[in-house]
From TrEMBL, chain A:
Alphabetical keyword list: Oxidoreductase
The UniProt record lists the keyword Hydrolase: no
InterPro entries: Ald_DH/histidinol_DH (IPR016161), Ald_DH_C (IPR016163), Ald_DH_N (IPR016162), Aldehyde_DH_dom (IPR015590), Aldehyde_DH_Superfamily (IPR050740)
Protein name as annotated: Aldehyde dehydrogenase
Annotated Aldehyde dehydrogenase domain residues: 61-498
UniProtKB/TrEMBL annotation, chain B:
Domain Enoyl reductase (ER): 162-491
Signal peptide bounds: none
Catalytic activity from the UniProt record: a primary alcohol + NADP(+) = an aldehyde + NADPH + H(+)
SUPFAM superfamilies the record matches: Bet v1-like, GroES-like, NAD(P)-binding Rossmann-fold domains
Keywords attached to this entry: Metal-binding, Oxidoreductase, Zinc
EC number annotated for this UniProt entry: 1.1.1.2
Keyword Metal-binding: yes
Name this polypeptide is given: alcohol dehydrogenase (NADP(+))
Top-rank lineage group of the source organism: Bacteria
Family named by the database record: Belongs to the zinc-containing alcohol dehydrogenase family.
Keyword Metal-binding carried by entry: yes
Organism: Lentzea pudingi
Length: 525, 498
């Protein structure tokens, strides 16, 4: 067997490459090989991680690996960050913004190689590239960076050369825990805490560490090094969850936690008790409202963003309210798109579905909704990677449910709770004069608060939306539900999505704190 | 590690099952590619998604407990192990197979591991079936929860008005939160079924699945059902829906609700406007409010007609106080009439049967009547003039109403239960003379129907039935039309499946 080049990343702590004391690595075996012949691929991965097989001789299904971090390494990363934080915080805001812009540029340059690794880890190619693009277009855009900068400091000149300043100062050390379903984007988002003047520790999850580590090492680290940032400003390691260590460590100030609502809110309480600021990115249960005058084709395209990654991303639509006048026409479009959405290997074009981690829940959600009176219009089967129905397949057919009436919608968990699968409940309310207000109330009563979208042309109704929909991180009118746009927030929300302190999330703002500075000349009067 | 398990039952005795399980080389069931004994242990190859899962396992037997424990020595898993446990169950045995494992791709484990578990458990279930010849899975989900496809069930339908009934399959709605799924055991043939299928009443919708005298057993309940449990003996009568909000419904008189929904040939306004389909079928799904308990002492075949004929007679007898000291005439001794006699007698009334001829006299007296008179004898009307507190009319043929009104005592009531679509010719003088009433009554409310079933159970009242196979429905319809049945046909629902 031939040797081939692999991407092997040690941990990056205090500006240095650090290996596990026993040389342990977690290896990336391509998702394609796992889908093609599962059991041998699983056995190979096990033997690679156990050090029984030389990854350079293991064939093309192995792409690389990341050093596993032990407790000592995890603690060292926190100490390094704490040492770097004061100096890094003194870097001027102008310099940090410049670093942000350069990260964006470099992300653009490195896009394709990161995409290859995301695909190897199982992200469909059709999603991986556009998702990365949205980060340099949004989080690292000049519009977003300058908006955040405008919030960082405002000074008023006072008499005799005195001044009053209100500014945001960095919290210190921010630890970031990206999720397995969207590790790389959330790690890049986490890196924006650097731009506020925080030192950052990012843990790449063991399941999919390679694209994340590569992106941070090849995009962010070089920019920081070029700028002369102190060592330890950014630390990157791969390992088991480290939140307990972070909560206990005196070095840690903020923890960015991305995960489910139940665990996230529990974490929030533990963080507050430990004196750490929790910044939560939890579940969304986003609603798309399609009114009678909407552009149905555009609305259907936006709604079926639900099928991306088989619904296993948070910022996608989770349920729809369709005006009864257009409900049938909209459902027809949704069913057609669902039927045309096929599983496949992540490297194939046109694939957006990925294996479903909670398929049993998916079928239970559908069965429950149908028992309550919903109608299943499409879906309800497991699929093999080639699209054939198979009850041992890893994929599921995108499902479209029709739920008649807001009362039924209110009592149906598939509508009211986040479902993490390709499942689109479409609520068709009964028409009456006060329907729009009732729909706004329904949207407002969502316990989650990530994003909500409206497809409507009537200007008076658009005005009512902007006046009345005050929950959630983003309200879209007539735009892609999940797209990230420059200047607008990409993350954050209210309720079960953001926790008690939840709001739209720019980490430059959320990992800093307001402070007033009052400098007088000539003494108090 | 998450444990996955499946439990099976088989008629084979436990020792024999345990013995066979110790010879894995004989496992040649569908999912298993091969099992070979080796020095290290048994080498398994199991088919999984077009490829194979391979491992070698070492097994330890505890003969006294009939337990086999196995663990992976080497193979595809990070960890793998489990057990077989065989316990006697009556003369047969119960077998529990447990397995737990770990794989190495954490971010896809959620998708992969449940499917590996499914394949392992299915193989185990197949092994037990293969070894014992016959085994039934009693615990453990080997499939996903059904995604709510409408269950398809066997039924008999009339394709158009007047056509003969023929076998078909129909869809029942998926179980809603308040719904009860019922396996029908018997369904009575009511005279209304004959009229409806014939299109006599002009409002039938076709194809039509008749039947509103349904008795069976609960097989499934919706999430919010509180009145019934799986295994309960239950019945469904003439209505399956009402608004539950109007004055009638609030009083428990759902049968008079303007928005009530009949069990067949109606539009179900409460379930998406689908046409209702009746009990000539193997299964039905009904809102729990319209499902009645059938007491254990009532045989289901005899209970079925009570759901229509029973309540249709019980309700007016109760309403007009049939009881000790009251004289009740039952006009017509057919499906309704024979139950009217039994119930009126059990209520303590003095019961007279008025039948066309003397032909059914013995039956009438046997059923509990105190007197029997033939109406083709003109002397009957002279003899019984001014006698009855209540005349219960169960016939659907044309009558000389004035003649029957003359049989009422002062203040008495003649109540129509049998349905005729022709106008009644009544002289007002017949009503004035004795301050008599001419009335009608239609089945009963849900609470009263339950009361009737309990009353019948207490007094040992069931319908006199002739149980038929579904293939004889058309013949039965003819015989009902000619009054040739004593006293109710009841279809054995197991014969709807051809």
């Amino acid at each position: 067997m031939t040797m081939h080049d692999l991407l092997m990343y040690p941990a990056y702590i205090d500006g240095k490459d650090v290996e596990h004391p026993e040389g342990r690595y977690v290896h990336t075996v391509t998702a394609r090989s796992v889908l093609e012949d599962t059991m041998p691929a699983l056995a190979l991965k096990r033997d690679l991680d156990a050090g029984l097989v030389d990854p350079r001789r293991a064939g093309p299904s192995v792409v690389g690996g990341c050093a596993l971090a032990d407790d000592r390494m995890a603690a060292d990363a926190l100490e390094a960050a704490a040492r770097a934080a004061p100096e890094w915080a003194r870097t001027s805001l102008i310099d940090r913004l410049e670093i942000g812009a350069r990260i964006g540029e470099r992300l653009r340059e490195k896009r394709d190689e990161i995409v290859e690794l995301l695909v190897a880890e199982g992200q469909p190619r059709d999603l991986a590239g556009p998702t990365l693009d949205e980060y340099w277009l949004a989080d690292f855009s000049s519009e977003t960076l300058s908006f955040c900068a405008s919030q960082m400091q405002t000074s008023k000149h006072r008499g005799r050369g005195g001044h009053a300043t209100v500014r945001r100062v960095p919290d210190g050390v921010v630890c970031v825990n990206p999720p397995q379903n969207a590790s790389t984007p959330n790690a890049l988002f986490g890196a924006t805490a650097l731009l506020a003047g925080n030192a950052v520790v990012i843990r790449a999850p063991r399941g999919v560490p390679l694209a994340t580590t590569h992106a941070l090492r090849e995009v962010v680290v070089p920019v920081l090094e070029e700028a002369g940032a102190p060592t330890g400003t950014l630390n990157i390691l791969c390992g088991p969850p480290m939140t307990d260590l972070w909560l206990q460590s005196p070095h840690v100030d903020d923890i960015v936690y991305v995960g489910s609502s139940a665990k996230g809110l529990e974490f929030e309480r533990a963080a507050v008790a430990a004196g750490k600021k929790p910044v939560l990115e939890l579940a969304g249960n986003d609603c798309v409202v399609v009114w009678a005058d909407a552009d149905l084709d555009a609305a259907a395209t936006s709604i079926t963003e639900n099928f991306r990654q088989s619904g296993q991303i948070c910022n996608i639509p989770n349920h729809v309210i369709a005006h009864p006048a257009i409900a049938d026409a909209l459902l027809e479009r949704l069913v057609a798109i669902a039927a045309a959405t096929k599983p496949g290997y992540p490297d194939e074009e046109g694939v957006v579905l990925t294996p479903v981690l909670m398929a049993e829940q998916h079928f239970a959600d559908i069965a429950d909704a149908v028992r309550r009176g919903a109608r299943l219009l499409h879906g309800g089967r497991r699929l093999e990677v080639d699209g054939s129905p198979s009850d041992t397949g890893f994929f599921v057919e995108p499902a479209v449910l029709r739920v008649d009436g807001l009362d039924l919608a209110r009592s149906t968990p598939a509508v009211r709770e986040e479902t993490f699968s390709p499942l689109l409940p479409v609520v068709v309310p009964e028409n009456h004069d006060g329907l729009f207000d009732e729909v706004l109330e329904f949207v407002g009563s969502n316990r989650y608060g990530l994003r909500n979208s409206f497809w409507v042309e009537d200007e008076r109704l658009i005005a009512a939306i902007t006046a009345k929909v005050t929950t959630g991180g983003v309200v879209n009118v007539n735009d892609s539900h999940s797209a990230f746009r420059p200047f607008l927030p990409t993350h954050g929300g209210t309720g079960l999505t953001g926790g008690v302190f939840g709001e739209a999330n720019y980490l430059m703002l959320r990992t800093t704190r307001l402070q007033g500075v009052n400098v007088k000349r000539g003494g108090a009067r | 590690m998450k444990e996955h398990r499946v439990a099976l039952r088989t008629p084979m005795p436990a020792d024999e099952v345990f013995d066979r399980l110790q010879h894995p080389e004989s496992f040649t069931e569908a999912g298993i590619e091969s099992v070979e004994p080796t020095a290290e242990g048994d080498r398994y190859a199991l088919r999984f998604r077009g490829g194979l899962a391979r491992w070698i396992q070492r097994t330890e037997a505890d003969h006294a407990a009939r337990v086999l424990k196995f663990d992976q020595v080497s193979g595809d898993f990070v960890d793998f192990g489990g057990s077989w446990e065989v316990t006697p169950d009556g003369t047969g045995s119960r077998i529990v197979h447990r397995v737990a494992f770990r794989t190495s791709v954490p971010h896809l484990a959620g998708a992969i591991e449940p499917m590996i578990a499914r394949v392992l458990l299915r193989a185990a279930a197949d092994v037990v079936s293969g070894l014992t010849g016959e085994a039934e899975v009693v615990e453990g989900a080997l499939h996903d929860e059904a995604p709510g496809a409408k269950p398809s069930v066997a039924a008999y339908t009339a394709p158009s008005a007047g056509a003969a009934l023929e076998p078909t399959t129909i869809e029942r709605r998926p179980l809603g939160p308040h719904d009860v799924g019922i396996a029908i055991h018997y369904c009575g043939v009511c005279h209304s079924d004959v009229h409806q299928v014939h299109g006599d009443w002009g409002d039938g919708t076709f194809p039509m699945v008749p039947g509103h005298e349904i008795a069976g057993v609960v097989t499934e309940i919706g999430a919010d059902v509180t009145r019934h449990a799986v295994g309960d003996r239950v019945g469904v009568g003439v209505i399956v829906g009402s608004c539950r909000d109007c004055g009638m419904c609030v009083q428990g008189l759902e049968q008079y609700c303007a928005k009530s929904v009949e069990t067949y040939a109606a539009i179900d306004r409460y379930h998406g406007g689908e046409p209702t389909r009746g009990g000539y079928s193997t299964h039905i799904v009904t809102d729990e409010h319209f499902v009645l308990r059938i007491p254990d002492s009532l045989p289901l075949d005899q209970a079925a007609p009570l759901l229509c004929a029973g309540i249709t007679t019980y309700s007016p007898l109760k309403h007009w106080d049939a009881g000790p000291g009251k004289k009740v005439a039952v006009l017509g001794l057919g499906g309704l009439g024979h139950l009217a006699v039994k119930i009126a007698h059990a209520l303590g009334a003095e019961v007279t049967v008025l039948s066309r001829s003397e032909r059914k006299k013995d039956d009438g007296l046997r059923l509990g009547a105190d007197h029997f008179h033939a109406t083709d004898d003109p002397a009957t009307f002279d003899l019984l003039a001014g006698t009855f507190d209540l005349v219960v009319c169960t016939v659907s043929s044309r009558l000389d109403v004035d003649a029957y009104l003359s049989l009422l005592a002062n203040g008495g009531t003649m109540v129509y239960l049998g349905i005729t679509d022709e106008p009644l010719g009544v002289s007002v003088f017949s009503l004035l003379r004795g301050r008599t009433s001419l009335a009608g009554s239609q089945i009963g409310g849900m609470a009263e129907t339950q009361e009737m079933l309990d009353f019948c159970a207490e007094h040992g009242i069931g319908a006199d039935v002739e149980v038929i196979d579904a293939t004889r429905i058309n013949e039965a319809f003819d015989r009902v039309r000619h009054g040739d049945v004593r006293y109710r046909f009841v279809i054995d629902a197991s014969t709807f499946e051809s």
